[in-house]
Amino acid sequence: MLSWLGRRTLWVVGGFGDYALFSARAARECFSTRRLWRRLVRAVFEQGVLCVPVIVIVGMFTGLVLGLQGYYTLVRFGSAGLLGTLVSLSLIRELGPVLAALMLVGQAGSALAAELGIQRNSEQIVALESMGVGSRGFLVAPRLIASVFVFPAQAAIFVAVGLWGGSLSGSLLLGVEPGIYWSGVERAVEWADVRECLLKAGVFGFLTTSLCAFHGFHADRIPGLSGARAVSVATTLAVVQSSIVILAADYVITSFLV
Amino acid sequence: MPPLLSVKGLHKSFGSQHVLRGVGFEVAHNTVFTVVGPSGAGKSVLLKCLATICEPDAGEVRFEGRLLASGERAARADFRRRCSFLFQHNALLDSLTALENVALPLEQTTDLDDAEIRRRSLDALREFDLQDFRDRHPGRLSGGMQKRLALARAIVTTPELVFFDEPTAGLDPLRRNAVFAMIANFQRRHGFTALVVTHDLAEALVVSDRVALLDRGHIHFEGTPGDFLHDDDPAVRAFRDSLNTLETEVAAIRNQPPG
To answer: Does A32 lie at the interface with B, CB-CB under 8 angstroms?
Structure first.
């Protein structure tokens, strides 16, 4: 039992080291990758444009639910007029960056892990390296760079749509004056909140994209598995671990900023 | 003139499985050198060790006299710029079009401008009769077209050495002959050195300048195709005779009385 625990611990610690080296090498190789901007544009399209629908839909429903739940909680204390404050601060400080990142992991992150896993399986990554092309710089770095900008942008869209959703349920359905709602939003939100939202989103983007890329890139190293099964397991690991990392990083960043 | 590629004492194991046991040979400039052997002999592993895709456990590989050890970054970078690898299953990037696949090594490893890259890539596609399919992704091409596309990508950088890993795997006899003819034709036209691994002995003997037999981790023969046909080494005889075995067995089955 003890030796199993020891081996497992070493495997986990070794995994952290591999991940850190992988991310560092991807960051280093981006400087030697030619025509990086073309790959960057493609990455922004994959993580940005293609993911906007899911961000809008989830943002809308999050705002609607917040408006609904917030109203019935606040009305008990005679504070229904603070609905705008409640919805805006909840979205901007926590729900916006966290839920947007979770949705992006589910769509773009899983796609990235699966694509790299299949490329690993079919020797496409080895082919790049045999040509003298840095595979991490070519395949991973553009996505890492894009994520640092796209995740905050998506979080901003999420928050904006969520605020509107909160207004929809709070004002249209439950009778809170729209002017009171939106003035509550304006009074509550400060630049520090916006910075916190964007910082969290950027950090989540880098961590989750690098983690998803790491698992896909090393799909051939999963013990006892190969082929489609290995890609499937790598993709699952990527999504699950990225989701956990988002919540853990959220706590760490919040503890420093509050 | 020193050999283009020199291999000495190459060893490679995967766990307890010893794939290469002290393999050594030399490849001269501007020749077709073929390594033959039964399936599972370690031919692909050997090729990947020579192309620095896989690290050998021991031994040395020299390219024009320069050692290609894992620490020799400059030598390896220079080597990879001057050689190409044709994978058994082509390894085309399926997110790129045919034209983008061919242009990729030029875009990433040369200082050519976009117009020149496009011109050279289209020329390479034309050479393999693929110009009409330049905007198709590899998944929408036939197996033979994918092979030609992979070859176009391999030669677009005008390499000095091209590694061919089982170039005829999975192809019917007619297409096998066509691929070997294509390799020989382009080798003579472009003047590169071809290092081929295959288990197709008949075709290999026709197009190769030199042949080596790899079996159970050892090189049992290295020489001309003519010498290979007359060599008395037991492993060479067994591999040579395996070509006749299928014909003999099929003839025996056909000659058996019914029931």
So the answer is: no
Q: Do B92 and A124 touch (CB under 8 A)?
A: yes
- Which of A51, A39, A85 shows the shortest CA–CA distance to A66? A85
Is A133 in contact with B84 (Cβ distance < 8 A)?
A: no
Q: What is the mean pLDDT of residues B90-94?
A: 94
- Taking every pair of C-alpha atoms in chain B, what is the biggest distance, in angstroms? 72
- Cα distances (angstroms) measured from residue A98 to each of A191, A196, A253, B182: 19, 12, 12, 56
Pairing, β B5-14 against β B66-67 = unpaired
Q: Which residue has the tokens 């890329």?
A: A213
Q: How confident is the model at residue A12 (pLDDT cuts 50, 70, 90)?
A: confident
Residue A109 burial class via C-beta count within 10 angstroms: exposed 0-12, middle 13-18, buried 19 and up? buried
In angstroms, the CA B85 to CA A125 distance is: 13
Distance from C-alpha of A111 to C-alpha of A227, rounded to nearest angstrom: 17
Query: Which of A4-18, A206-220, B55-69, B223-237 has the largest mean confidence?
Result: A206-220
Which among A123, A132, A133 has the least Cβ separation from residue B87?
A123
- C-alpha to C-alpha distance for A206 and A211, rounded to whole angstroms: 8
Contact A130 B92 (CB under 8 A): no
Contact flag B105-A131 (C-beta cutoff 8 Å) = yes
Burial zone of B95 (CB within 10 Å; 0-12 exposed, 13-18 middle, 19+ buried): middle
H/E run at residue B68: none
| B85/A contact by beta carbon, under 8 A | yes
> Looking at the whole model, is its pTM more than 0.80?
yes
Q: Is B69 on the interface with A (CB under 8 A)?
A: no
Q: Which residues pair with B85 in a beta bridge?
A: B163
Which amino acid is present at B122?
A: L
Are A122 and A16 in contact by the 8 Å Cβ rule? The answer is: no
Is the pLDDT score of B116 beyond 90? yes
| ipTM computed for the complex | 0.85
pLDDT digits (tens, 9 = 90+) for A162-195: 999 999 999 888 988 999 999 999 999 999 999 9
Which chain B residues are Cβ-neighbours of A124 within 8 angstroms? 91-94
Looking at the complex, does the CB of residue A35 fall below 8 Å from at least one CB of chain B?
yes
Radius of gyration of chain B (CA): 20
Write the CA distances from A136 to A22, A113, A241, integer angstroms.
Answer: 8, 13, 20
